[in-house]
Amino acid sequence: MSATDMVQLQSSDGVDFSVPRSVASMSVTLDHMLHDISRSQSDEAIPLPNVNAKALEKVIEYCKHHEKDEPVPASDAAKQEHSVHNISAWDKQFMQVEMGLLFDIILAANFLDIKSLLDLGCKTVASMIIGKTPEEIEQTFRIPTQ
């Protein structure tokens, strides 16, 4: 892969990542940025002020894994959107992270406009809530009781 096929991303905490352009383009936000910058600017790292290094590393891992996925038809997407049971084994394993990182991934997916990752993060949180009492939810998410 040539250097022009790579994109430099910089996390909010100053860590640089070199990512294939096709992977970065899975983010609608980055795809628009890449179309807007000139070739002379393409060597400069794109700063991502709302995404820390740990979350960005996970986002890149997710995008690399799903890069070749076929787009889901709109009719199927609507059905899948609302089902917390329709998560692949890889995606379930991928989202088994500590709570703070889980929410950082969700925020990064929202900022970068990666709908499939945002949906996965929200489904993961929803699956942590289903069937629990309010007290169990408070305990799961470490919500202080009043």
TrEMBL record:
<dbReference type="InterPro" id="IPR016072">
    <property type="entry name" value="Skp1_comp_dimer"/>
</dbReference>
<dbReference type="GO" id="GO:0043223">
    <property type="term" value="C:cytoplasmic SCF ubiquitin ligase complex"/>
</dbReference>
<keyword id="KW-0833">Ubl conjugation pathway</keyword>
<dbReference type="InterPro" id="IPR011333">
    <property type="entry name" value="SKP1/BTB/POZ_sf"/>
</dbReference>
<protein>
    <submittedName>
        <fullName>Sulfur metabolism negative regulator SconC, putative</fullName>
    </submittedName>
</protein>
<dbReference type="GO" id="GO:0016567">
    <property type="term" value="P:protein ubiquitination"/>
</dbReference>
<dbReference type="Pfam" id="PF01466">
    <property type="entry name" value="Skp1"/>
</dbReference>
<keyword id="KW-0379">Hydroxylation</keyword>
<comment type="similarity">
    <text>Belongs to the SKP1 family.</text>
</comment>
<dbReference type="Pfam" id="PF03931">
    <property type="entry name" value="Skp1_POZ"/>
</dbReference>
<dbReference type="GO" id="GO:0097602">
    <property type="term" value="F:cullin family protein binding"/>
</dbReference>
<dbReference type="GO" id="GO:0006511">
    <property type="term" value="P:ubiquitin-dependent protein catabolic process"/>
</dbReference>
<dbReference type="GO" id="GO:1990444">
    <property type="term" value="F:F-box domain binding"/>
</dbReference>
<feature type="domain" description="SKP1 component dimerisation">
    <location>
        <begin position="115"/>
        <end position="145"/>
    </location>
</feature>
<feature type="domain" description="SKP1 component POZ">
    <location>
        <begin position="5"/>
        <end position="67"/>
    </location>
</feature>
<dbReference type="InterPro" id="IPR036296">
    <property type="entry name" value="SKP1-like_dim_sf"/>
</dbReference>
<dbReference type="InterPro" id="IPR001232">
    <property type="entry name" value="SKP1-like"/>
</dbReference>
<comment type="subunit">
    <text>Multiprotein complex (SCF) with cullin and F-box-containing protein. Capable of undergoing aggregation.</text>
</comment>
<dbReference type="InterPro" id="IPR016897">
    <property type="entry name" value="SKP1"/>
</dbReference>
<comment type="pathway">
    <text>Protein modification; protein ubiquitination.</text>
</comment>
<dbReference type="GO" id="GO:0071987">
    <property type="term" value="F:WD40-repeat domain binding"/>
</dbReference>
<dbReference type="InterPro" id="IPR016073">
    <property type="entry name" value="Skp1_comp_POZ"/>
</dbReference>
